[in-house]
Amino acid sequence: MKIKDAGSVVYSFSPAHQAVAELTPGETIVVETADCFGGQVHSQGQSPETIDRTRVNPVSGPFFITGAEPGDALEVEILDINLAGQGFMMVAPGMGRLGKLVKEPRLLVCELNGNSALFAPGISLPLKPMLGVIGVAPEKGEIPSHTPGTHGGNLDTREVRPGNSIPLPVSCSGALLGLGDVHASMGDGELGGTGIEASAEVRFKVHLHKQANISGPRVTSPQGTYLVHSAPTLGRAIDAACKDAVDYIRSSTSLPREEAAMLVSACCDLQICQLVNPKVTVRIFVPHLS
Ligand code: CA
Ligand code: CA
Question: Where are the domains of the chain?
């Protein structure tokens, strides 16, 4: 087991980045992740003006995965997310879908006591830790860590949490896995642009599926598989998710296209992940079929 210090981070996914460590499939690792503002938030009452919002979502890594090659699927099994003792939220005019409704920037620090987040006197929320950012390097070029896509990235998907596994399509040798942006809690949509943001220690294990040729990120749970799609518009993200669900059912059954479409309509839930990043993200859940 290894601990990676969150002090060394990157702000993009790129095959040009130098890996910080090499992981072997099957190995368990614990990684420290910085919060979305890289530790700039310290105490209640701190002015939002003190926050440099130009450098968001520091990513721990990247990690070179032994044996990973383009066409493989890298599956990240999330075992545990150990949150720091405090988290924070921010709202500001122009930020997220709620940015039209607030009149001034506001920063709120809240204590995380192990079971709940103490949002305000008399109001606490259950902790539901998740990773906002998880991804691998694209084949070429560089994708900023605030952007979601087929490589993963800033997916802000609540199901990226302990107990679930995240298959990602490998596009370069070694995959170059990175992760960060832990939320202690986040509602679907992430409507104000932040969840309860916190630094954390993330314990996970990686598995390699040779030449699985998946087209984008997925989340597998004990109940089934979420297919995760990001696009510039909600309509395009939904269309891509629907097509993927039909194709997924056809590849795992012998059903023709029309019956596969009926099954999607009968039992697959379309859900919004986030509406606030440079692309929006949706997921469609395909339950185990038997
Ligand atoms: Ca995020
Ligand atoms: Ca975040």
Answer: 2-10+17-213, 221-287
Write the DSSP symbol of residue 35.
Answer: -
Q: Per-residue pLDDT tens, the chain, 290 aa: give them.
A: 566 666 679 999 999 999 999 999 999 999 999 999 999 999 998 999 899 887 799 999 999 999 999 999 999 999 999 999 999 999 999 999 999 999 999 999 999 998 999 999 999 999 999 999 999 999 999 999 999 999 999 999 999 999 999 999 999 999 999 999 999 999 999 999 999 999 999 999 999 999 999 999 999 999 999 999 999 999 999 999 999 999 999 999 999 999 999 999 999 999 999 999 999 999 999 999 97
How many Cβ atoms are within 10 Å of 32's Cβ, its own excluded?
A: 19
Dist. CA 159 → ligand 2 center (Å): 14
Q: Which ligand is nearest to the CA of 154?
A: 1
Q: Which CATH architecture has domain 221-287?
A: Roll (3.10)
Question: Could you tell me the distance, in angstroms and rounded to a whole number, from the CA of residue 157 to the centre of ligand 1?
Answer: 9
Domains 2-10+17-213 and 221-287 share a fold: no
CA of residue 289 to ligand 2 center, whole Å: 34
Q: How far is the CA of 251 from the centre of ligand 1 (A)?
A: 32
- The CA 56 to ligand 1 mean position distance, Å, reads 9
- Side chain identity at 257, as an amino acid letter? R
Which among 153, 197, 215 is positioned nearest to 179, based on CA atoms? 153
**How remote is the CA of residue 188 from the centroid of ligand 2, in Å?**
12
Any idea which architecture 2-10+17-213 has in CATH?
Answer: Sandwich (2.60)
155 in Cβ contact with 145 (< 8 Å): no
